[in-house]
Amino acid sequence: MATITSLGIGSGLDLNGLIDQLKDAERGKLEPIKRQQEQQQAKISAYGQLQTSLNSFQDAVGKLNDASLFQSLSTNVRGEGIAANATADALPGRYSVNVETLAKAGSLATTRVDSLDDVLTGENATLKLSFGAGTETSEAVINLEAGSTLADIRDQINADKQAGVTASIINDGTGYRLALNSKTTGADTSIQEIGFTGLAAGMTLASEGDTKRVGKDALLDVNGVTVTSPTNEVKGAIQGVTLTLEEEGSSSSVVVERDTLAVRDNVNGFVKAFNVLKTTIDKLTSFNGDSSTAGELLGDNTVRTIESRLRSVLGGGVAGGELSTLSQLGISLKRDGTLEIDDKKLSGLVAGDQTAISDFFAGSDKQGGLAGKLDTTLSQLQGNNGLMKSSISGAENRIESLNTRYERMEATIERTIGRYRTQFSQLDGMISQMNQVSSYLTQQFDALDYQLGRKK
User: Fold this and answer.
1) What structural domains and CATH numbers belong to the chain?
2) Where is the Flagellar hook-associated protein 2 C-terminal domain (predicted)?
3) Which CB contacts under 8 angstroms, 24+ apart, belong to 291-294?
4) Each residue of 61-91: pLDDT tens digit?
């Protein structure tokens, strides 16, 4: 009997189609697992969105948990010629600043030499630089190598970090001069004189008086008080304020005041970040009755716990200070759970009593104010052993377990389909044999009828 190589050939039945239908029916057992996998993956993605909003809220909280924010000052310069920057040590006030002269660095050039190739130094050559103004002087000595040209001397000066000057070579159209510039401004660092010893025979190199530019201190007056400074960055003339002088002969007004804008911006940022968090939670826990669609975290215990703990801290306020609740700052809780700011009330408090606001948000230490309490709560919720991490880990573990179940179910289905294929193959062969027997018997009966017919 011929071997059947394809299902249905022997029997004439569509056994391959039947196998496919049975396989589809068996694989239907995988659909519930796939739906659970998708649900857990969607939950992990939703936790990620929630965590992003929590992180943004914690960043906004952290800015209010810094007492220096409420002590910050701003400077406003009216006029030209200076810039001003205040630190926490500054005191609010108004100052008139007139700049008479800017600080300048001194410079000096030597007598000229005819060629850059001329050897200028012999053995034990040195260069001595004198700095200062009047009788108050200082010196720097630079040892020079024998056989040095003007370019070599320039390089050796620039390589000496203690020289206090930078060196260059200038061609004045007749010859070459060594030009020295003080590294810093001010009269005390002005170059008074240069002196060479140990020059090569026949060589002279000395200060050229006509090329000397004396270094100067900056001269200004602040509210009528004369101030001198060796640099154009003047510190201490106004307490806690650094003045940067930019133009001689300029007059400006410097106003130092509390930086109310920074406080208002950060309080508004706090409210905005909380409202974004609340909107995210509402979206993830929503339910639409018309379409019967639900958010990925509807009924999730993690979200309920986070909301409950944050509401508890926000509603609890701070005890012991002039301000104890958010409503006293003009921040109220709306019916939809978001926060709303009364800008007029907040601006009045910021302008009049930043210390009270500082005590409310920042407190006397990092945990004392409302911001500190919120930061502690958020850190606990999102820490390595916190609720968010454990919830995400739980969903990931469930996905891993579902993956294992899926693989096992697939293997079971394949074995079942293989068993069906074997049984159908046997059935196909059996029907094929029966068909052959039937055909044989039909032929025999037909032959018998024929013989009987002839005998008649």
Assistant:
1) 1-72+259-456 (1.20.1330), 73-102+218-258 (no CATH), 107-211 (2.60.40)
2) 215-436
3) none
4) 999 998 888 877 888 889 889 999 988 788 8
Report how many helices (DSSP H) and strands (DSSP E) the chain contains, helices first.
9, 18
* Alpha-carbon span 131 to 195, nearest angstrom: 12
Q: What is the per-residue pLDDT for 424?
A: 74
Alpha carbons 427 and 343: distance in angstroms, whole number: 85
Helix (H) or strand (E) holding 302: helix 301-316
Looking at residues 244-265, what average pLDDT do you find? 90
pLDDT per position as a tens digit, 96-129: 999 999 999 999 999 999 999 999 998 889 999 9
Residue 131 φ/ψ, nearest 5 degrees: -120, 155
Q: Cα–Cα distances in Å, from 287 out to 61, 242, 293, 304, 400?
A: 30, 58, 6, 15, 28
Q: Provide the pLDDT for residue 3.
A: 43
- Report the C-alpha gap between 316 and 321 in whole angstroms: 13
The answer to whether 243 touches 254, Cβ cutoff 8 Å, is: yes
For residue 186, what pLDDT is reported? 93
Would you state the pLDDT for residue 262? 87
Between the CA atoms of 278, 283, 288 and 293, what dihedral angle is there, to the nearest 10 degrees? -150
**Distance (Å, whole) CA 229 – CA 210:** 26
Report the SS3 class of residue 410: helix
Q: How far is CA 169 from CA 146, 150, 196, 255, 421, in A?
A: 19, 8, 17, 46, 97
Residue with tokens 């009330």: 345
* pTM passes above 0.85: no
Residues forming a β-bridge with 229: 218
Note the pLDDT of residue 366.
57
Burial of 268 (0-12, 13-18, 19+ CB in 10 A): middle
Across residues 432-455, what is the average pLDDT?
75
| Amino acid at position 436, single letter | Q
- Tell me how crowded residue 108 is: count the other CB atoms within 10 A of its CB: 25
